[in-house]
Design a protein that fits this description.
The complex is a heterodimer of chains A (284) and B (120). By secondary structure, chain A is an alpha/beta fold. Helix content of chain A is 34%, strand content 20%. An eight-stranded mixed β-sheet of chain A has the order 6-3-7-2-8-1-10-9, with helices on both faces. Chain A starts with a strand and ends in a 7-residue tail after the last strand. Chain B is mainly α and 120 residues long. Chain B has a single domain, classed as Orthogonal Bundle (Protocatechuate 4,5-dioxygenase, Chain A), CATH 1.10.700.10. Helix content of chain B is 64%, strand content 0%. Classes of the chains: A alpha/beta (284), B mainly alpha (120).
């Protein structure tokens, strides 16, 4: 039986991936963020998940206004690296897990979630910034990745509650997959930031700290928030924290926090967490 | 566009969301911004922006927004900011410069509002 061993949270800003590529982790600007990746890299090496279920969004790279799926799953055996218009990053293609993706897409329908299925979905910074920061400079990724994409850019977008429930449903689906896989779930993006309008640059570190507390101990209360409430606190782009609620929904009701870091950067409140699943504690 | 959609699209002062009617209104300009993902299209745009925008069927008003680097106007019109960043980038405005313009500030003024700063 497959099981979820932990949930991870990571920002997904393009600047993070660019700093990885420049090997700029020790500069005064980037050290407070990359110090937060060190325990995550060590955790991944120790826990060795077989699969990461990655909650992310596309940024009008592979999707456009022509088709905007609310939820989508990438089912390919290999996920291509997108060229977002600044050249393709020199990263190996990311291995997928077609059998697990099929299982998830089929079982989720029975649980009330009908995901758009994508056989070719080049990944953009929403996926590649966190993956490359967690597993830097690899010639071959040590884990397979099943991306689940959430529309957070074109309204209407799904509610926080719906995302939390999707996480719950994914937990059930993972546990009914027959292979013995260790699965980590990864929520990406956020936390507070706003990238358009006269309020460009809005960051709310107090709210981000409260968000992280509640994500750990009382996620249902976050799932009850409206988009309007999230936007007022954290800025328009902070609504993407609904993807952290997908991650949290997939975990046991109580979790063991083994890592938390926060960096108030120029445009974004960057946060990182590891929550171990206390029903499925990893060995070692 | 109904008033209820207008209200939804402006959830707090200085904040804009992309809704169906706005996206529909700005479809062609959005598609043009996305086309700049192609290096050939980017080079053509840089060489002769007016010709390439006319060829894409953009209206005078849309071309005016781009020529004026009115990034805030583009967002209000219905172009998602990630698409705005592509055309702003092709015209030499990075993310912070684009944001500073939306705030009505110079880049230096915007930098002074930041806790930490890295030019990019």
């Amino acid at each position: 039986m497959a099981r979820i061993i932990a949930g991870l949270g990571s920002p997904h800003a393009p600047a993070v991936g660019a700093a990885v590529d420049r090997r700029d982790e020790e500069s005064a600007y980037w050290k407070p963020l990359f110090d937060g990746y060190k325990p995550m890299r060590a955790w991944l090496e120790r826990a060795k998940p077989d699969v990461i279920i990655l909650f992310t969004n596309d940024h009008f790279t592979s999707f456009f206004l022509d088709v905007i799926p609310t939820f989508a799953i990438a089912v390919a055996e290999q996920h291509e690296i997108a060229d977002e218009g600044w050249g393709k990053r020199a990263l190996p293609e990311v291995p997928g897990h077609t059998e697990l993706a099929w299982h998830l897409s089929r079982q989720l329908v029975d649980l009330g979630f009908d995901l758009a299925v994508c056989h070719r979905l080049p990944l953009d910074h929403g996926s590649l910034s966190p993956l490359s920061a967690l597993m830097p400079h690899v010639t071959q990724w040590p884990v397979r990745v099943v991306p689940i994409l959430v529309n957070v850019l074109h309204f209407p977008i799904p509610t926080a509650a719906r995302c939390f429930q999707l996480g719950r449903a994914i937990r059930d689906c993972v546990e009914s997959f027959e292979d013995d896989l260790k699965v980590a779930v990864l929520g990406t993006g956020g936390l507070s930031h706003q990238l358009a309008g006269e309020r460009f640059g809005h960051i709310n570190p107090q709210w981000d700290a409260e968000f992280l507390d509640r994500l750990e101990n009382d996620p249902e209360s976050l799932a009850a928030l409206t988009h309007q409430e999230l936007i007022e606190r954290g800025g328009t782009e902070s609504v993407e924290v609904i993807m952290w609620l997908c991650m949290r929904g997939a975990l046991s009701r109580r979790v063991r926090r083994v890592h938390r870091n926060y960096y108030h950067a120029t445009l974004t409140g960057y946060a990182q967490v590891i929550f171990e699943d206390i029903e499925n504690l990893p060995e070692g | 566009m109904k008033q209820s959609e207008r209200d939804f699209a402006n959830p707090s002062p200085g904040s804009y969301l992309l809704t169906v009617s706005l996206a529909q209104q700005a479809y062609r300009l959005s598609a043009f911004c996305r086309s700049l993902m192609s290096p050939e299209q980017r080079a053509a745009f840089k060489a002769d922006p007016d010709r390439v925008m006319r060829a894409a069927g953009l209206t005078d008003a849309e071309i005016g927004l781009v020529r004026a680097r009115d990034w805030l106007g583009m967002v209000r019109y219905g172009v998602n900011h990630f698409l705005v960043f592509r055309i702003a980038g092709a015209m030499g405005d990075g993310l912070a410069a684009t944001g500073a313009k939306m705030r009505g500030e110079t880049l230096e003024e915007f930098a002074r509002t930041r806790r930490v700063w890295e030019e990019r």
